[in-house]
Write a structure and sequence with these properties.
flat, mainly alpha, 0% strand, single chain, 16 helices, MetI-like fold, 312 residues
Length: 312
């Protein structure tokens, strides 16, 4: 792997993170005064002044930005306005639950979506293809909140098979995982089918078939590797969205993760926690996209060569 290619991608990732930090800081502070939300309406001027000073909200905006940027650079996101703990500590304790749910949903989407796409492509325009693509489109199109409520209605209220909230057992994971992973399954199936069809129509695939290469060998040694780039793109976005995508699902099933924490923190205008959460989501997306770019260059050397020529 070319060092310059990787260095350029890393530099772009750092610039993106700086822009995210700046954007988050400005938007959250111009959207309203947290003092109005956190303190009662009858709070006296002395109390307001105390908390303004305590939270650094009495400083000019540029000083707040400078102090905040340096703090973020050091890994300090400030103190939660609600429970007076470090914001990063509040967020970190919720990450394992979200990763548990997100990883299980990701595995569900990959294990179901990619085989669906491959089988649909190999049976193009058949009843199997139409049935699988109908399933994929429905999975991609149904909103999380609707699917989650529907699953609760059927499997909790009617059949009474599964619990509707909490995270204490594996049974608590079933409906949240299906709800969160169904959309990824649908998009992966569609991406995989399109990529496979494009590769299967290439001349080298027809040549390998004419030479008598066994079908499984043609699929796994020639078709799948060449169809990997679009699928890798989709996989990268799904990995990057493990945290941000769980927001609605965690709220529906009362899952104790960062998605539910974000909803609560936004409602309470807990700026420090909100900023830490958004930075976590942004960092996840940036790292995922960086890994995608590097993987592109590893899978297909033509991509990194083209990128270097554009830079030159």
């Amino acid at each position: 792997m070319n060092t310059r290619y990787v260095a350029i991608k890393v530099l772009r990732a750092i610039i993106t993170l700086w822009m995210v930090v700046t954007f988050i800081f400005i938007v959250l502070r111009v959207s309203g005064d947290p003092i109005d939300t956190l303190l009662p309406d009858d709070a006296d001027a002395e109390t307001i002044a105390y908390y303004m000073h305590e939270w650094g909200l009495d400083r000019p905006l540029h000083e707040q930005y400078g102090l905040y940027f340096m703090s973020v650079f050091k890994g300090d996101f400030g103190v939660s306005f609600i429970d007076d703990r470090k914001a990063l500590e509040v967020v970190v304790e919720r990450i394992p639950a979200t990763l548990q749910l997100g990883f299980a949903a990701f595995v569900f989407g990959v294990c179901v979506g990619i085989p669906l796409g491959i089988v649909a492509a190999l049976n193009r325009n058949s009843a199997i293809d139409r049935a699988m693509m109908t399933t994929a489109v429905l999975g991609y199109a149904i909103p999380n909140f609707f699917l989650g409520i529907l699953l609760i209605l059927v499997f909790t209220l009617w059949l009474q098979w599964l619990p509707s909230s909490g995270s204490s057992t594996l049974w608590h994971m079933v409906m949240p995982v299906v709800t969160l992973g169904t959309g990824g399954m649908g998009s992966l199936a569609r991406f995989t089918r399109s990529a496979m069809l494009e590769v299967l129509n290439q001349s080298y695939m027809r040549t390998s078939r004419a030479k008598g290469v066994p079908r499984l060998k043609r699929i796994f040694r020639h078709a799948l590797p060449n169809a990997a780039i679009p699928v890798v793109t989709c996989l990268g976005f799904k990995i990057g969205g493990l945290i941000s995508g769980s927001l609605i699902t965690e709220s529906i099933f009362a899952w104790p993760g960062v998605g539910r924490l974000l909803v609560t923190s936004v409602g309470n205008r807990d700026l420090a926690v909100v900023q830490a959460l958004i930075m976590l989501v942004a960092l996840t997306m940036v790292i995922a996209n960086l890994l995608i770019d590097i993987t592109y260059g590893w899978i297909d050397p033509r991509i990194r060569v083209s990128s270097q020529k554009q830079e030159d």
